[in-house]
Amino acid sequence: MELVAIQYKHTEIGLIPEDWRIESILDVADVKRGKFTPRPRNNPFYYGGNIPFVQTGDVTRCGGVVRNYSQTLNQQGLAVSKLFKKGTVLMTIAANIGYTGVLEIDMACPDSLIGITGLKADNHYLNYYFIYHREDIEDLSTSGAQKNLNIELFSKFKIALPPSKKEQQAIAQVLSDTDRLIQSLEKKIAKKKLIKQGVMQDLLTPKLGWKSLNLGKCATLKARIGWQGLTTAEYLHQGPYHLVTGTDFKGGFIDWDNCVFVEEFRYIQDTNIQLKINDVLVTKDGTIGKIALIDSLTKPATLNSGVFVIRPIQKSFDSRYLYYILRSSHFAEFLARLTAGSTINHLYQKDFVHFDFPIPPSTEEQTAIANILSSMDAELRHLEIKLSRFKQVKQGMMQQLLTGKIRLV
């Protein structure tokens, strides 16, 4: 493939190369709706045969290729549904509108999906075009208690097409290769997380000679006091002092890029909640029990009223060891006991201080455990940053390739 000079023309959907064309979806494909879903679900008269029956959620989660299905139908079920062939592009038309995927095998479909068949364009190119323009497709839907998109509304959707199927296939191939890289990285991250979960379970299980510490006796718990009256109206988009809220917790750390800011007087108002490296944070309102470690500080930072900061008294434990304890089953089980049979949405200090946790007798052993888990966390964060960049690259590639700004000839 080579890059070529491009001449553009103005069209109803924007600039496209001179030799590209604009087509209505009905000019390049047949669009057919699935049939009514048999009721009730799992009725053996319809369900339980060997015919794959795909649901809306299967397509929403498919990532562009429909290979998984929730249920199967027998011949009676197929009679009241509709079978689409391998290679059909499926699209969701109810609730979550415009999610698409190419069928990897023949599947039956309910009436919450449409099948795009009889294609005069490459099916994978169309699928990526739909993915890139999902919000535009959603805008075509009817509003109401639940959004819906019918074939008549969808027929208004326009597609920019390269002149040859070969070029369409080349574009789809590049994007498909990128998807495979992303999926490979996602699988690697999932595997690493499972490994880390097993290592945590092993390292944090009490051994001979370990002891039990009570959080209330070995640590201080501080939070912004209610009478200080900090409100969201004081949140700033920029400034010298970060304000950490419960929504800034991301993967066990603080997402500094999305933190708000506060004026200086709010920072100096309470020295107890001025954050330091290795502080452990716990959310106490809303979604209680989210955990974060302060492993870096890009600017001075303080807390809003929904977060505890935990610090050891007289170096009674390694803070990072406690961080991993709080992310383990030990703390999850404590919270489960605390909230059993209630709709509690607040973690009170009077309850939290009763948390007991197992700990090695020496700080050196605590630190060694924390170092192992920290190293695994660092690797996961590196992979997740890489994944985020790959996804950004793919989005940029779609924008360039599906509008003809870059040609693959």
Structure, described:
The chain has 409 residues and is of the alpha+beta class. The protein folds into 3 domains: 21-161, DNA methylase specificity domains (Adenine-n6-DNA-methyltransferase TaqI, Chain A, domain 2), CATH 3.90.220.20; 163-207 and 361-409, Orthogonal Bundle (Helix Hairpins); 211-359, Alpha-Beta Complex (Adenine-n6-DNA-methyltransferase TaqI, Chain A, domain 2). The chain contains 13 helices and 24 strands. The chain has helices at residues 25-28, 56-60, 75-79, 123-132, 134-139, 151-154, 165-203, 215-218, 264-268, 319-326, 329-339, 349-352, 363-401, and strands at 8-11, 14-17, 21-24, 30-33, 47-53, 65-66, 71-73, 82-84, 89-92, 100-103, 107-109, 113-117, 158-161, 211-214, 219-222, 241-244, 249-250, 253-254, 260-262, 280-283, 291-293, 301-303, 307-312, 356-359. The strands form 9 sheets. A 5-stranded mixed beta sheet has the order 4-12-9-10-6. Strands 15-23-20-21 form a 4-stranded antiparallel beta sheet. Helix 7 (165-203) runs antiparallel to helix 13. The longest helix is centred in the middle third of the chain and has 39 residues, at 165-203. It is elongated and about 75 Å long. The model has no long low-confidence stretch (mean pLDDT 93).
